[in-house]
Amino acid sequence: MSDQKWMSMLGLAARARMLVSGEELVIKDVRAKKVKLVLLSSDASESTRKKVVNKCEHYHVPLRTVSTRDFLGHAIGKGERVVIGVIDPGFAKKLITLLDQ
């Protein structure tokens, strides 16, 4: 997986305002079936990981674990982020392709 490619794509999605970040906001939008992909940092706490994984499984939302919270935040031009939800189906599909390589 090329970190640069998926991080650039995530940055584009952020500039297009097709992301939601933060545990509670992502879970709320997963429940509302707005989120098409959830990115979870590898250094998320166990309780956060369990909550996000359970919601994604229940609502059939793809979930990918990525680098640290620093990388996630840097990719979208913000501070540290533990959970990011991608709203746009096109960005979600491309990110899944890049992350699964």
Characterize the structure shown:
With 101 residues, the protein is of the alpha+beta class. Helix content is 52%, strand content 16%. It is built from five helices and four strands; from the N terminus they run H-E-H-E-H-E-H-E-H. It has a four-stranded mixed sheet, sandwiched between helices. Strand 2 (37-41), helix 3 (46-58) and strand 3 (63-66) form a beta-alpha-beta unit. The N and C termini lie close together (5 Å).
Largest sheet: 4 strands, mixed
Radius of gyration: 12 Å
Order of the strands making up the biggest sheet: 1-4-2-3
Strand-residue fraction? 15-25%
Judged by helices, strands and strand pairing, the structural class is alpha+beta
Question: What's the total number of strands?
Answer: 4
Keywords, separated by commas or semicolons:
101 residues; alpha+beta; 4 strands
